């Protein structure tokens, strides 16, 4: 099968969507499929590099940090993709590249599968002064985009139910995003722990909490910093791995809370180094309320870290209370669960083992690709059946 994946972002950009696409592409190719990527260039020119087509774009960071759009169809580059003749298009974003996907699908008469990665309700502060209006806009926008898809993939049941509440009529399949977990194995964890802690001047006997992700408002890191400042434990540090528009604010906030000597901001870290950072820590923490699935949660679990995260429906099947971590709703619970995890060594060992087992059994990139492959075949069949029905009706048969 020839598969075209369209996305606003691709490597070297680092985020959950890109990680998902990179892993999917690799596993689909292992299954024998041809896969190409259509994405936006970081400059005002289009070009092709290997099997990736980059379309010229403009930065619109005022709408959302790092966002880009293209106003052109760059027919020369799209024509080359049409000559390749993909069997299906799998779109991953709802904006410029979805418009290009629609154009290609119409010309080639092939179906679009769309993965709905982002819960835009949690981002209304970027584009609407009124949260209620913002949510209404998201519902209308989502219906309008997804009516062009033959199938919709939701990473969690939470996202599926949300799309149904918007009035989306397309078939929705829940498929948790898969991750290549091989690099998160703990075989080198002791050396990684030593190297990272020495580099960042973190005491070896400190309990280390870690957050990995984009430093943006929707990640709710102020709550983690506030809770961390209230915990009465001298031998504990907090490692914040990543960068984003809120980094300077969060660094100021840590100073305001008088915890700057126990909170380490690493800035951007290369993907190859991320496993070592997980393995240097003891607990993964997050207070984000904007995740559709949260790939960093899975990475942390695969690294053997119990997870302590703000309660959210999308995490109910990922973090199981007392099994591989806990979900908290307030500071009292956060503090109590920290104590449960760290003060009982036998419990910690069990939580760590369960974390690894859960990640590898439920979220591998291999099973993810096979599930997506099944949807492709179903979508192609459904698409051509619907076109046959339209043709029959237009011909006046069975009317």
TrEMBL record:
InterPro entries: Glyco_trans_1 (IPR001296), Glyco_trans_4-like_N (IPR028098), Glycosyltransferase_grp1 (IPR050194). It comes from the Bacteria. Residues 14-182 form the Glycosyltransferase subfamily 4-like N-terminal domain. CDD domains: GT4_UGDG-like. Residues 193-357 form the Glycosyl transferase family domain. PANTHER family: SULFOQUINOVOSYL TRANSFERASE SQD2. This is Glycosyltransferase family 4 protein.
């Amino acid at each position: 099968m020839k598969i075209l994946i369209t996305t606003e972002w691709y490597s070297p950009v680092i985020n959950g969507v890109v990680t998902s696409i990179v892993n999917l592409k690799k596993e689909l190719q292992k299954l024998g499929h041809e896969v190409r990527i259509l994405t936006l260039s970081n400059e005002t020119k289009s070009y092709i590099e290997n099997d990736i087509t980059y379309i010229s774009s403009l930065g619109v960071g005022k709408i959302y940090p790092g966002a880009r759009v293209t106003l052109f169809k760059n027919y020369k580059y799209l024509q080359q993709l049409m000559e390749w003749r993909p069997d299906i298009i799998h779109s991953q974003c709802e904006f410029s590249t979805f418009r290009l996907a629609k154009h290609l699908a119409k010309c080639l008469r092939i179906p679009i599968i769309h993965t709905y990665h982002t819960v835009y309700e949690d981002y209304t502060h970027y584009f609407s002064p009124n949260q209620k209006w913002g949510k209404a806009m998201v519902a209308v926008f989502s219906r309008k985009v997804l009516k062009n898809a033959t199938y919709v993939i939701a990473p969690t049941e939470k996202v599926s139910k949300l799309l149904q509440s918007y009035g989306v009529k397309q078939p929705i399949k829940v498929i948790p995003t898969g991750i290549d977990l091989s690099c998160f194995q703990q075989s080198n964890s002791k050396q990684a722990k030593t190297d990272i802690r020495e580099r960042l001047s973190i005491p070896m006997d400190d309990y280390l909490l870690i957050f990995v992700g984009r430093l943006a408002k929707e990640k709710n890191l102020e709550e983690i910093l506030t809770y961390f400042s209230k915990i009465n434990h001298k031998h504990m540090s907090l490692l914040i791995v990543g960068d984003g528009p809120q980094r300077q604010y969060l660094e100021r906030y840590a100073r305001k809370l008088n915890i700057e000597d126990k909170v380490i901001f690493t800035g951007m870290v290369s993907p190859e180094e991320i496993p070592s950072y997980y393995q240097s820590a003891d607990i993964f923490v997050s207070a984000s309320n904007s995740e559709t699935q949260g790939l960093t949660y899975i990475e942390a679990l695969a690294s053997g870290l119990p997870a302590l995260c703000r309660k959210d429906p999308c995490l109910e099947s990922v973090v199981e209370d007392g099994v591989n971590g806990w979900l908290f709703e307030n500071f009292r619970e956060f503090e109590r669960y920290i104590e449960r995890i760290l003060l009982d060594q036998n419990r910690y060992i069990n939580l760590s083992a369960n974390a690894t087992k859960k990640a590898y059994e439920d979220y591998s990139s291999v099973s993810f690709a096979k599930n997506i492959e099944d949807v492709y075949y179903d979508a192609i069949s459904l698409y051509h059946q619907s076109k046959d029905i339209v043709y029959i009706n237009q011909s006046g048969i069975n009317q």
